[in-house]
UniProtKB/TrEMBL annotation:
<dbReference type="InterPro" id="IPR016084">
    <property type="entry name" value="Haem_Oase-like_multi-hlx"/>
</dbReference>
<dbReference type="InterPro" id="IPR016053">
    <property type="entry name" value="Haem_Oase-like"/>
</dbReference>
<dbReference type="GO" id="GO:0004392">
    <property type="term" value="F:heme oxygenase (decyclizing) activity"/>
</dbReference>
<keyword id="KW-0479">Metal-binding</keyword>
<keyword id="KW-0349">Heme</keyword>
<dbReference type="InterPro" id="IPR002051">
    <property type="entry name" value="Haem_Oase"/>
</dbReference>
<feature type="binding site" description="axial binding residue">
    <location>
        <position position="25"/>
    </location>
    <ligand>
        <name>heme b</name>
    </ligand>
</feature>
<dbReference type="GO" id="GO:0046872">
    <property type="term" value="F:metal ion binding"/>
</dbReference>
<dbReference type="GO" id="GO:0006979">
    <property type="term" value="P:response to oxidative stress"/>
</dbReference>
<dbReference type="GO" id="GO:0042167">
    <property type="term" value="P:heme catabolic process"/>
</dbReference>
<feature type="binding site">
    <location>
        <position position="179"/>
    </location>
    <ligand>
        <name>heme b</name>
    </ligand>
</feature>
<feature type="binding site">
    <location>
        <position position="132"/>
    </location>
    <ligand>
        <name>heme b</name>
    </ligand>
</feature>
<feature type="binding site">
    <location>
        <position position="18"/>
    </location>
    <ligand>
        <name>heme b</name>
    </ligand>
</feature>
<dbReference type="GO" id="GO:0006788">
    <property type="term" value="P:heme oxidation"/>
</dbReference>
<keyword id="KW-0408">Iron</keyword>
<protein>
    <submittedName>
        <fullName>Biliverdin-producing heme oxygenase</fullName>
    </submittedName>
</protein>
<dbReference type="Pfam" id="PF01126">
    <property type="entry name" value="Heme_oxygenase"/>
</dbReference>
């Protein structure tokens, strides 16, 4: 008996990434810094420090988006409404005050993450991996983070602009469209494998940043 053709078709990229990184996701969100930040055990300074790290990562990611916007295949994955740098800058101005640029401290793991994104960001599978890891995460767990930051650290809408997407009225609809864009990139088998590997790397790079943040902000953390 032969299998129906759809059973032989390769899984769509969005499914490969979601299924292939479930364990990595679990590890990332059980990082000490993440757990303590979300449970209210830390303080606004820890949240502000995280926001500062995000600035540098998104500057690199969104420089890659701008460079790829004219690329035939990549352009479907570049969404204006995801742009986060201006929102992070507003959060930092609120959290640190008007002199925020001189106040923020960028950690070595953050530099390494941003440098890596700048290095590989012009390759479509690599760009797709970094875009997926950050933006779909922000639209998913990020919404939980936003609620918890407001609840635990007395923030109003000001200070959590990063987690607010004013041009995305229905997150679920947008996430479906984003996944469809991923699936429509037309990546071949090798490129899909490259993308999955790169998402794993992106999770590790995020965890390294959380590790350095934990060393600074978590009471019983080991020194870096
Ligand atoms: C802060 C703790 C976190 C929580 C509570 C959390 C929670 C979630 C939840 C509930 C979803 C599923 C949403 C849905 O079904 O549509 C999700 C998806 C996702 N998260 Fe997280 N997450 C966290 C941290 C992270 C981190 C650190 C990253 C990576 C930097 C990340 C990346 C992702 C990605 C890429 C998805 C999309 C999975 C997919 O549907 O393909 N998350 N997260």
């Amino acid at each position: 008996m032969s299998l129906p053709a759809e059973d032989l078709a390769p899984a769509p990229l969005s499914v490969v990434l979601r299924e292939g990184t479930r364990a990595a996701h679990g590890e990332a969100n059980s990082e000490q810094f993440v757990e303590e930040l979300l449970s209210g055990a830390l303080d606004r300074a820890a949240y502000a420090d995280l926001s500062a790290q995000l600035l540098v990562v998104y500057e690199a990611l969104e420089a890659a988006s701008a460079a790829l916007a004219g690329d035939d295949r990549a352009t479907s994955l570049v969404f204006e409404e995801l742009t986060r740098v201006p929102a992070i800058e507003r959060d930092l101005a609120y959290l640190y005050g008007p002199g925020w640029r001189a106040e923020i401290r960028i950690l070595p793991a953050t530099r390494a993450y941003a440098d890596h994104v700048r290095e590989v960001g012009s390759s479509l599978p690599h760009y797709a991996a970094h875009s997926y890891t950050r933006y779909l995460g922000d639209l998913s767990g990020g919404q939980i983070v936003k609620r918890m930051m407001k609840q635990h650290y007395g923030l109003g809408e000001e200070g959590v602009a990063f987690y607010t997407f004013p041009d995305i009225p229905k997150v679920k609809v947008f996430k479906d469209a984003y996944r469809a864009a991923l699936d429509g990139l037309g990546l071949d088998e090798t490129e899909v494998a490259t993308t999955l590997d790169e998402v794993h790397l992106a999770f590790r790079l995020n965890r390294a940043v959380f590790g350095e943040l934990a060393a600074i902000h978590c009471g019983n953390a080991q020194a870096v």
